[in-house]
Records
---
Amino acid sequence: MQNYKDKNIVIIGIGKTGMSCIKFFLRKNIIPKVLDEKTYINKELKKIPKNIEYYLGEINKKWILDANIIVVSPGINLKNPIFNLAEKLGIEIIGDIELFCRETKLSIIAITGSNGKSTVSTMLLNMLKKSKYRVTIGGNIGFPVLNIIEDNFDILILEISSFQLESTKKLKTKISIIINLSRDHMDRYNENIQEYSNIKNKIYNNAEICLFNLEDKLTYPNKNITSKKISFNSENADYYLKKHKNKLWIYNKNIKLFNVSRMKLKNLHNHINAMIAIAIVNILNIPIKKVEKELVNFKGLKHRFELICHKDGIKWINDSKATNIGSTKAAIKDLNTKSKIRILLGGDGKNTNFLELKKYLEHNSITIYCFGKDKNKIAKILPKKTKKYKNLKEAMRDIFIQVKSGDTVLLSPACASTDQFLNFKHRGNMFIKLVKNFYDKKNKII
């Protein structure tokens, strides 16, 4: 544990993460200062004790340069010149994950990647609970890690984003995994996917075991990593998918471990997610038979390729969690393009190159409905088969008029939601509400 006594500590960000950091220091009888670039008074602000100074609307440079330690929330861009100056002056810049790592004695399984983090984390949580481990989940999913009460658990499943990894130095894990990497957050990484990969690769530092995707070179551990390396997702890998008597199995070397054909989820990307969960369980020496029922019955996450309605011959799929093109590619590949697909794309593309979607969208059966901040950029991919709208509601009104039996309507935006929504859940719930209203009003468009 580190001693923070007599340190001048500044926390940047008054969201869930920021509040967890405030409580962390208060438990140690340390009074931090708090900054937020936003000016509005939100519900979190009202929870700040009256003896804590806060400053809103911009980064207070004097506070920053007078600090000993700056604790940043994940949304804070560390490329701001003021942070470069602070580091040159010897001021430490860390995040909540780093604070936690300096305190914890828990065994950590850390999971990152562009897509599939939450699904793999939840699959694994269910399986470890079934095996009687005292396990919890936190980080980029669930709740901030600083809210975890360590006495109640043995293992932490830590879902961690690239933003969180930027400010993490002493993460020590039992197993670290990068599931996959595709172009995401390019607004943060200046169109440099190698920089994005290098940040993600920090998850392997101080890991006992590195689990990486043999089909994705961006996930490979750097050459200076000396940890044990285990691969997945290729027949040349340690863990792979292979058919045996018309059933698809997860193998370790030449040993069949689990028949994924039994799973309720039938999509390939979910079978790969299951492979990762099985690999971790196998590495931990947990008998697969003991926990496989949790995987067989796993129904997936809300807002992740979620079939919300199949009525009048029309499928309505909510994949609002698809906030990058990698997720949207996976969703399209999982659909039967023999039927008519009406796909909803749009939001904040985070400087994504949408042309990477072209070969997935040019099939004759697909019609594109664009909305939100980057609708014009998306529409340039295939302008003749694309329609543009101000927002999701306007796009859905048109779809309700045009949709026919046999069609599939897919919300898989390939963009962040924060241009018009609070988050991807808000966007997905809006989609669900619009579909529900359509059928409740007996297909009457209002």
---
Amino acid sequence: MDGSEAVDLDSADDDTILLEYVDLNGISRGMFIPEDSWDRAVEDGVGFGSIILDWYESHNSRGITEASNLGPSEGEIQAVADPDSLVPVPWVDSDIKKANCDLLHNGDPTSMCSRSVLGNVLDLYHDMDFTTSVGTELEYNVFTELDAEELERGEAYLREVAATKGSPYATRPIVDHSAYVTELATTMRKMGGSLEGIHKESTLGHYEAILEHSSALQQADTIMSFRMAARGVGRQHDHIPTFMPRPMSEFEGNSQHYHFSLWRDSQNAFNDPSAERGLSDTGRQFVGGILEHARGLTALCSSTVNSYKRLQPGLWAPIDISYGYDNKTCPVRIPHGRGDATRVEVRIPDSYANPYLAMAGILAAGFDGIRREIDPGEPVTSDIFEEGADPENSLPTSLDEALTALQADDFLRETLGEEGIAQYVALKRNESERYRQAITDWEVREYVDQI
């Protein structure tokens, strides 16, 4: 991976390697193997139970999906390690490394492996002689504890245990927790995903980490490393992170903004000094594709019922389908920099999104825009938060609405894989239905003793 030192397995007597797979929900799963099994993991893969493709963590059950309920007679899933992703796990005292995996079933790739889905989309760009570069701004909240029984108290408890207070970019809270911030930055550098910066954000316990640009696949791997490191390092400093999209209703939520650029012959393909505002036709068409598929993309980028508590007017999160030059009220923003810094920022994803699926969807949409030369239209210069979204041009306002849009988007469904999207939709429909059936603490307070 870019920025990391090559891991020498021969330098330690007793290496243990965590093979990591990220399921459709973005949950990290895996197994430890001894160092002497590494070559087999790279060449042939290591067997995982097929249940890994059909499991919903919070429901603690399987059999939810209609697609590929793999039984015990249908073979194992082979997790094939990517040797380029092998990195140390620095906060652990023992000699532990981790590597990301792609999943095969009976020797064939499966569209239910989100990392493989991203790899397949990147092949489309490779065929056009493009390489990708992606940077990420990733927000999360940090608490000093998350006691399971106390969590029943909801937001009041979270406010009590927030690790920091203070306004955006305030120095005192981040200096007070400098040991955590410094170790996290050092850890990420060792894991091959350097932080360009980390600062206090606007709400209680709120941080934003800026991840250095890398290829799309490396960036998604780095995001998963960051989530693991934020937790692992955090617990040593009484910091317990959450990547929940919006944990407290009084404040805005947690985003996962991606900054994309395409490169050909070492030149930024989005940069054109002769074009209006310096954005090339390729860049404009990339934006056009994202806008064309924005409603379906929202299901991949804002993937939980809680996500739609974030996509609300005035919360620094997008609500309509538009783009603008340095306009942070738009879901697609063209930041100020030009030359090699020319890029397209997509602001729809939240911090809970599976980075492989979210990036795969966005890049697939951008590819379609370039392929079909889609014109994005005129940029928006107004404040959408003040004006409000046009109902005819708004992003989905619920998970169900977004899933319906994804199912209706033939291009996204076919490009990302019919089987994988079918399973993803089934898992998320189940999540939405369980949410509808749940009685919330707000309902109890509002109605239990009113009449």
---
Amino acid sequence: MLDAVLKAVDPDLQWAHGPTTTRACGVTRRRAVMTVVSADRRQTFLDRAEAFWRKSDYRIKAVNKDEVFPAVYAVTEAGFGVSVSFRGKGQAFLEADSPCVKESKVAPPTAEPNGPSYEGVYPLPRPQVRSGFWSGSSN
């Protein structure tokens, strides 16, 4: 699900795996965007993710229009929660939460990041990849 929304956002953004965590009955996967997304482009990024989720028949649960920490939250028909949010220093994060599942070993992610993997690095570095579109101004 995270790979699909990242492929749908154009132009491409560089990303890396965030930590995978388990909860009482579910799993959360994360992606950290390593491309600098300027304040002027953050809403564009959120709009493109939201449009993809609507097209994919996800239900939009909430939209946070905060100027500093905007976010979009959605849920799939199968009960998976997905989100994209901007946090400290304007870094974008994508998350997917599974519904309750039977306890089992959690396999590592299979998708390869489209930049450095930062394997074993936590916390991940802040975005440092510049993009003519994402890192610029909308003016």
